[in-house]
Please model this.
Amino acid sequence: MTERFQGSFTQQEPIPGEGIAAALEVLRHGRLHRYNVAAGELSETALLEQEFAQATGARYALAVASGGYALGCALRAVGVGPGDKVLTNAFTLAPVPGAIASVGATPVFVGVTERLVIDLDDLGERIADSGARVLMLSHMRGHICDMDRLMSLCDAAGVTVIEDCAHTMGAAWNAVPSGRHGAVGCYSTQTYKHMNSGEGGFLVTDDEEIAARAVILSGSYMLYERHLAAPGPEVFERVKYHTPNVSGRMDNLRAAILRPQLRALDAQVDRWNGLYRTLEAGLRDCPGLTLVDRDPRERFVGSSFQALMLDWPASALEALLARCAARGVELKWFGAPEPVAFTSRYDSWRYAPCAPMAATDRILAGLVDLRLPLTFSHDDCAQIARIIRAEVSAVHQQGG
Ligand SMILES: *Cc1c(COP(=O)(O)O)cnc(C)c1O
Model:
């Protein structure tokens, strides 16, 4: 009898009871807008920002409407404008080049290695030949490159780094939280990320002018003094007449459900990594399948899992996906010629011209990906591994 996995790859956990109670409180008093406060009241959004700054060790934090908004806001706040070039990963998701395009700039793609991180040699070459002065670094699927090497490369070349931490909230490199190496760190609290408010995001920085510009950009009007994790009014005086309002605020309802999730984040990361290690153990030494090694300096968040079927023909990968899907295991494939659901690749973003990237294409052509929601048990992960293992062997033996 062949086993079939019955779970759902898209089912997240419920919002914690404390969050539901806090949300009801906001609904009862009706002050959902972050600047709508009673006398002496601190808004849920302002408190959340203060707590997020503490959690990441950043001087300033801003909560916004989405992760994609945080990315675009960060680009504007560091001064990127129409016609500029912005370096970014070829292996990422659509909101990243989309944020670059949203400010009229052009993405310059940098290749990916077998460890699924940005290729630092390629980055050095792209910096030199593009002249770009900003890197939007996507820690795609939670794989963190050697950040010490990346930062010394970028610092030496005068390249400002904005980190896309949509998949690394709660992660760290060499004990420094992800998002705290570059000038700005951006996070998402969209349902499929590490905290769930449906939509939402954050931006953190230690730079007072970037912080003040981001607050005004996000739609503070002249109410910026109601922030608890923003610079003093003298900094806003310097930027307020020159910074446009591009509204993208967070609201108190979302902030209310995020505050208890932030307190639980570390424990959730441990749970994710437990599931990840179970799945990984079940796929060790599977002929045809290459696991992605994790660097010991990386404190990652195993909220998704990737494996490489290097140099398989496309038809074999298609067969593998179909066979796994028939047994309830939804794999995503970054080698598909057409964008599907959330998955697309650098050459499907045709607004951003690029030359073919052979080394990157080889990785993407073999890359399969799956989500690990916390609603899965260890038994679920062991079963998913058995199914993938059996189907990889079956296809591989047929000469795949
Ligand atoms: C989800 C995601 C974002 C953007 O987040 P939204 O909150 O959905 O706008 C950015 N980068 C990556 C890699 C993502 O997966």
